[in-house]
Design a protein that fits this description.
Elements: E1 2-3, E2 9-11, E3 23-28, H1 33-43, E4 51-60, E5 65-74, H2 77-80, H3 86-90, E6 95-101, E7 116-120, E8 123-130, H4 136-145, H5 157-165, H6 171-181, E9 187-191, E10 196-200, E11 209-215, E12 218-224, H7 228-231, E13 236-240, E14 245-249, H8 251-256, E15 260-263, E16 271-274, H9 276-281, E17 287-288, E18 291-292, H10 293-307, E19 317-321, H11 327-339, E20 344-346, E21 350-352, E22 360-361, H12 368-375, E23 376-378, H13 380-383, E24 387-392, H14 399-409, E25 415-420, H15 449-456, E26 460-463, H16 466-472, E27 479-482, H17 484-487
Parallel strand pairs: 16-27, 19-20, 19-24, 24-25, 25-26
Antiparallel strand pairs: 1-2, 2-22, 3-6, 3-12, 4-5, 4-6, 7-8, 8-9, 9-10, 10-14, 11-12, 11-13, 14-15, 17-18, 21-23
Helix pairs in contact: 5-6, 10-11, 10-16, 12-14
């Protein structure tokens, strides 16, 4: 709970979910690069609402040298870049990178707002990072002993120090050297004086895609966490940045269309894509890891219908999503449950308020029930006297789910079932999601799924099995998934004493 200066409670009405990670964007070769970056960040606002920033690089004609301009601030994209002419006159140039940030508690200092930048022997360098490093403590201590002075408390700054200290000759080799030293999850966009560089870690935990758009003089290129960022600026999708790949876009790319590609480590390992990107984080209209999020979520709902058919012999069943992230899975469930002979209607039985913003000021109201009512309202005509299947994508602590179920119960359903389109979350994430500790997770508080249902207040509860989850996601050679939050099997080694500073960038 945050506090208003006037001692008024500021309630954060997000559902009890894993917090999103971040968004990164890079644009090259567009005369309005910062404007394109701004729109892309706006499309990716769901990945981080605490802060945003853009850095552009432009030619200083008077001094005949490259310079960078930066704007960073706390708040939503629309607020951070609301000053007149900030995008057209301050953030000049045909290349830019941007970042939307979500951080853990205590790390909201303005110093931590990305993108970061530096001027070193090879010129200008700027970087935006999505993910978490897992050897932060070791690297940070080593760099401090070598004389590095840190300006932030994020793991992202480590990349700048590692690149600046690298003994390799070319800028690209210095980047590669740094990425080989860092361990964990990272999707990066980087700018030099004349080049846009992007990279995904050898395990490819977080998504990153390449697109291009037409300009008056040819093609411009964009890199973004999700392809929803391409749609808003009419860019076309080219491909995903591969795991273990560094790509380079420069003036030669604008002439030939060739995107230079390099490996981070010589032997590419099996990828471990974050499966939660499909379940919850990414927008359903995005393509991540080369595949449609909407298509996967429909499959998740269909698998729920296969595993847990809901029957009402006297009436049609109403399938109600917890908006908005469960909408698509609910469609899939409705279709399969109907096909199995149980006529099921997809209904918007919960209406979500989109106008209260990320924080809501409410004097004297600190309870969870009020927070849920501030964000959701029940359509009683849909619920009353009906068999209701409430579909959600996940449960973390369970406190909000309990309050939401109480809200639905007030509308007097005949039966209330809760279906979750993922397995129980039992373990924290160290790769860029803000899950609570194991002690806070509801799945570790009860010795059976049925008891979780009793605590929340539903007639029945069902979580999608891991087997059906894996059947729902795309299967490709050399590609696996990180399911550590469900299984405790971490594909990337975690530092022995854990990450001891705020690293959820």
């Amino acid at each position: 709970m945050k506090r208003h200066p006037n001692n008024i409670s500021i309630l954060v009405p997000e559902l009890d979910k894993a917090r999103p990670n971040c968004a990164v964007v890079g644009v090259y070769g567009h005369p309005q690069a910062s404007i394109m970056t701004y729109y892309a960040l706006h499309a990716l606002q769901h990945r981080g609402q605490e802060a945003a920033g853009i850095i552009s690089i432009y030619q200083d004609e008077k001094k005949k040298k490259k310079r960078f301009a930066a704007k960073r601030g706390q708040g939503l994209v629309l607020d951070v870049f609301s000053e007149p002419n900030i995008l057209t006159q301050t953030l000049k140039g045909d290349m830019a990178i941007g970042h939307n940030r979500y951080s853990t508690t205590g790390s909201s200092s303005t110093n931590n707002i990305q993108p970061f930048s530096m001027i070193y022997n090879d010129g200008i360098f700027a970087l935006a990072h999505n993910g978490n490093l897992t050897n932060t403590k070791t690297l940070r201590n080593k760099l401090i002993q070598e004389g590095s002075i840190f300006q932030t408390t994020t793991d992202s700054e480590l990349f700048l120090h590692l690149i600046a200290k690298s003994k390799k000759e070319s800028r690209l080799e210095k980047v590669r050297d740094a990425l080989q030293t860092a361990r964990g999850a990272y999707s990066l966009t980087m700018l030099t004086d004349d080049t846009l560089i992007a990279a995904r870690d050898p395990n490819g935990v977080r998504p990153l895609s390449i697109g291009r758009m037409k300009t008056d003089t040819g093609w411009a290129y964009i890199i973004a966490s999700e392809t929803a960022a391409f749609d808003i600026i009419s860019a076309e999708y080219i491909r995903s940045v591969h795991h273990n790949e560094i790509i380079q876009i420069d003036q030669e790319t604008l002439k030939t269309g060739e995107i230079k590609s390099f490996k981070i480590v010589d032997e590419t390992p099996i990828a471990h894509h974050c499966i939660f990107e499909y379940i919850y984080f990414s927008r359903p209209d995005s393509k991540i890891f080369g595949h449609s999020v909407d298509k996967v979520r429909r499959k998740l709902g269909k698998k729920l219908g296969e595993e847990m058919p809901i029957v009402d012999k006297d009436d049609k069943i109403r399938a109600v999503p917890v908006p908005d992230s469960a909408n698509t899975a609910t469609i899939g469930f409705s279709r399969v449950n109907s096909a199995n002979g149980n006529e099921t209607l997809f209904e918007l039985g919960l209406i979500r308020s989109h106008y209260i913003g990320r924080t809501f000021i409410a004097p004297g109201q600190n309870n969870r029930e009020f927070r849920v009512k501030a964000k959701f309202n029940v359509v009683k005509g849909v619920i009353e006297g009906k068999t209701i299947v409430l579909v959600d994508d996940s449960i973390v602590r369970g406190t909000t789910s309990k309050a939401l179920v109480k809200l639905v119960r007030e509308a007097n359903p005949k039966k209330l079932h809760l279906l979750i389109s993922s397995p129980p979350i039992k373990h924290p994430c160290f790769y860029g999601m803000d899950f609570p500790s194991e002690e806070e997770l509801i799945a570790n508080h009860h010795d059976s799924i049925e008891k979780i249902g009793e605590y929340i207040g539903v007639d029945t509860i069902h979580y999608l099995s891991k087997e059906k989850l894996m059947e729902s996601v795309p299967q490709e050679e050399g590609i696996d998934y990180c399911t550590a939050c469900f299984t405790g099997n971490y594909p990337i080694e975690i530092e022995k004493n854990g990450v001891d500073i705020n690293t959820n960038d």
